[in-house]
Design goal:
Strand content: 15-25%
Helix content: 25-40%
Strand order of the largest sheet: 1-7-6-5-4-3-2-9
Number of strands: 11
Radius of gyration: 21 Å
Number of helices: 14
Structural class: alpha/beta
Order of helices and strands: EEHHHEHHEHHEHHEHHHEHEEEEH
Distance between the termini: 32 Å
Length: about 425
């Protein structure tokens, strides 16, 4: 599948896969070099506020849905931990940015904590000056070290206050609140931030937060051991309001700031690639259906203004509808597309009767998937961000997995040590 447009930013979890799209010649230490990539190609690393910042209970920050989720449902976190301290980037960002410069990063992808900037979720309810100061300091420190900031406005952690007030993304009220938050960020930081992402993996939040209940806010149908929710309805409602929130934020940026600030804005979607498990017509159609339900669910509305046909057919009235005005706002609402890509899967078609009587997003796809490893060929790739720069709080996995190229010693004052992967990346990035 080739995805083409003015700019495609690709975020990957596995460094070694980059070589497959460039045909670089191998060497004993690094199989390719910076010169193997087009001029202007950016290399960076990613992060998320709740995963690395810590300082959850100080300096005016309000609760996010993850603060409450980890306290009320510690059994859903593999090691029963939380992000109260995390990697303590809040206090250690200057040293961490020095490490980024040492490795040779061109750019760093960070997210803002909405509730650190607006503790109650709305500008009218008060701006936290210490939160604004923190992000100003981080941005300035990055630029001082020659590293371009790429900012994600929302990475899984909307304010708990808005969830308490009206259900968060289950209500259309959040669209205006997200647009107001985005407006504040563009106005406050957009003179220096030239790359914006509205949301990271909104499809992941919809699936894990409202279908399986394994992520905050932990909602799913009763059989999924959740205190509330409906896996057949809520994933689609939450996703619908996320898509509209994205569109509203992009409209604010393009109407008020882009001409002056000259930045770019997009969204990041997570997806796998799929291949038919068996060479049958049913499984080939299942591949298309699986892509529609994972990637097309968000990509199609923001490019063409509506959901994929397969979703509208299979989900029926449970899938919300866009008005003509909303569709027009969403169509083409991106300068670039971010893709979080980890692996590929075999797709096998399964009949509805085999999925059971309890409908959910999972059942609606009518696909059984089997994991494999492959790569997504023919994209106009402009940048690559490893996940992640630091070991961190990995959502429901807690601190049991370490994806960072920098080792964080969680038992010894959070000391940092560059891993072999960081040294490898450093060799690649030498100019």
């Amino acid at each position: 599948m080739a995805i083409r447009g003015p700019l495609l930013v690709l975020f990957l979890a596995l460094i070694c896969l980059v070589a497959t799209i460039h045909g670089a010649k191998p060497s004993p230490l690094v199989p390719f070099s910076r010169s193997s990539f087009p001029p202007g190609f950016l290399f960076g690393a990613g992060s998320a506020a709740y995963q690395i910042e810590g300082a959850a209970l100080i300096d005016g920050r309000g609760f996010s849905i993850w603060d409450k989720f980890t306290r009320e449902h510690p059994e859903k976190i593999w090691d029963r931990s939380n992000g109260d301290v995390a990697s303590d980037f809040y206090h250690k960002f200057k040293d961490d940015i020095k490490l980024m410069k040492r490795v040779g990063l061109d750019t760093f992808r960070l997210s803002f904590s909405w509730s650190r900037i607006l503790p109650k979720g709305k500008v009218s309810r008060g701006v936290n000056p210490l939160g604004v100061k923190f992000y100003n300091n981080v941005i300035n420190e990055l630029l001082h070290n020659g590293i371009k900031p790429l900012v994600t406005l929302l990475h899984y952690d909307p304010p708990q206050s808005l969830y308490d007030e009206y259900g968060g993304f289950l209500s259309s009220k959040i669209v205006d609140d997200f647009a107001e938050y985005a407006d504040f960020c563009f106005k406050t930081f957009g003179d220096r931030v030239k790359y914006w992402i509205t949301m990271n993996e909104p499809n992941g939040l919809a699936i894990n937060g409202y279908n399986f209940g394994s992520f905050a806010p932990g909602r799913c149908s009763p059989l999924g051991n959740c205190p509330g929710g409906n896996s057949a309805v809520e994933p689609y409602v939450a996703a619908h309001n996320m898509i509209l929130s994205h569109g509203a934020a992009v409209k604010v940026y393009k109407d008020k700031y882009q001409a002056i600030q000259k930045g770019k804005i997009g969204i990041t979607i997570v997806s796998h690639w799929f291949l038919p498990k068996f060479n049958t017509t049913a499984d080939r159609i299942a591949v298309s259906r699986a892509l529609d339900f994972m990637f097309g669910w968000f990509a199609r509305p923001i490019t063409f203004g509506d959901y994929p046909d397969s979703m509208r057919s299979l989900v029926g009235n449970r899938l919300p509808k866009f008005t003509k005005e909303q569709s027009a706002m969403l169509k083409g609402s991106l300068d670039f597309l971010g893709l979080n890509y980890y692996t590929a899967n075999y797709a096998e078609s399964i009949p509805l009767t085999a999925t059971g009587a309890n409908l959910s997003y999972t059942d609606d796809r009518r696909v059984s998937q089997t994991s494999m490893l492959d790569f997504l060929k023919g994209a106009n790739v402009k940048a690559y961000y490893i996940w992640s720069f630091l070991d961190d709080f990995e959502w429901d996995a807690g601190y049991t997995v370490r994806f960072g190229v920098t080792y964080v010693d969680f038992k010894n004052n959070l000391k940092r040590y560059l891993k072999s992967s960081a040294r490898w990346f450093q060799l690649l990035l030498k100019k």
